[in-house]
Structure formats: C-alpha cells, structure tokens
Design goal:
Radius of gyration: 23 Å
Largest sheet: 5 strands, antiparallel
Low-confidence stretches: 7-33
Pfam families: Cytochrome_P460
Strand content: 15-25%
Structural class: alpha+beta
Number of strands: 9
Distance between the termini: 55 Å
InterPro entries: Cytochrome_P460, Cytochrome_P460_sp
Helix content: 25-40%
Order of helices and strands: HEEEHEEEEEEHH
Shape: globular
Mean pLDDT: 85
Protein name: Cytochrome P460 family protein
C-alpha cells in the first residue's frame, strides 16, 4: 500500500513539474514573440541600416523591369520586402502598423535578359529571375518624428552595393508623395502583399 502511495505521489509531482516547464516555455516563447527590433538613429538623426533583416517576415517581391517600362523603370529590380517580426505580430492582431514599424525593401536585379521583353529562359521556363543585390530602401513609422510625411520616414541605403551603413530621411517629394497618393493602407503598398492585405493569407 505504501508503495502505491509513493508511486501516486511521484506521478503528481512529475505532472506538476511538467506543467511548470510547459507554462514556463510558453511564457518564454511569448516574451520572444513580443520582442521588437526598433529603429536606431545616429546623433544627427540618420537611420542605421537595420540588422538581420533577412530573418524578418518576408511579404513579397513586386517587379518593374526596364524592358517593360521603356528602358527606364524607376526601380528596375525585384523589391524583396520584409517587415520586422515584432511589428508584424502586432499588425496581425490589430490590422494596424504600430509605431516603430520597419519595412525593409531590398532591391535585387534580374538576371541578364535574353529577349526583348527582358525575360530569359531557365530550367523552369521563360521569365524573370533574381540576380545580384542592388541596395535597399527602408520605411519607418514614427508619427512624431515624421509628421510632415504622414507619420512615415523614407530612407535610401544606396541603389547599388554595398548598402550604406546610415541614411538620411528623404524629403516628401522624393518618396512620400507616391505612397500617399497610391499605397492602399497607411502609406503601405498592401495591395501587393497578400500577407498584409488578406487576413486569410496569414
């Protein structure tokens, strides 16, 4: 009888320990998911190139090649766009971009064209294929710092490699005006990114 009591006690203690470990790991997981990487600035207000952006949430890659735009596309590359994970977690819950949101657009050239429309043929067929990196643009939400451009700041870290380590905010007539006039939601081109535009795609 005493052995049975001891065995039952061991099971209860074991279950309690497992429960504590489970909720502890859950708490740690939630803490990690709520951690955000926020914009970093120099003393004179330049934005530092965000760190580890390739590990962020990828949302899409629009493409406007030169060959389809009279040879002079404004951005003749794939626009590989990432959102900072902590901000994306909040956006999923609220459908609003929180203060401090960073959207990182890495530009990537297409491989050399073989046809008049800029396309080429690879093993998968004829199309446009990503080539070398070609700089980056970054957008930051800060309603106070960037009040003149509807709460978003726009930064260019070169349209070539290597990317600049810092960047000054662009004037309203350089970037913001186009976002204000054409972007679907809060100056973000969510119409091109199902992950941000369609809750069912999340």
């Amino acid at each position: 009888m005493r052995v049975g009591v001891q065995a039952a006690a061991a099971v209860i203690v074991g279950s309690a320990v497992a429960t504590i470990l489970f909720f502890g790991s859950l708490r740690d997981s939630n803490a990690q998911s709520n951690t955000r990487y926020l914009p970093e600035y120099t003393a004179d207000g330049q934005l530092l190139l965000p760190k580890n952006f390739h590990e962020w949430v990828y949302v899409g890659s629009p493409l406007t090649p030169n060959a389809l735009n009279g040879g002079q596309a404004n951005f003749p590359e794939f626009h590989n766009v990432y959102i900072e994970p902590g901000s994306y977690a909040i956006y999923k819950k609220t459908s609003e971009f929180p203060e401090g949101t960073i959207l990182f657009k890495e530009l990537q050239l297409t491989l050399p064209q073989e046809n008049a429309d800029g396309s080429r043929t690879e093993a998968s067929g004829r199309g446009y294929f990503p080539g070398k990196w070609n700089g980056a643009d970054v957008t930051v939400k800060d309603s106070k710092r960037f009040a003149d451009t509807n709460g978003w700041g726009y930064f260019n870290f070169n349209h070539h490699e290597p990317k600049a380590p810092t960047a000054k905010v662009k004037s309203k007539d350089e970037c913001a005006y186009c976002h204000i006039a054409n972007a679907k939601k809060d100056e973000v081109w969510t119409q091109f990114y199902p992950l941000l535009d369609n809750k069912d795609a999340r």
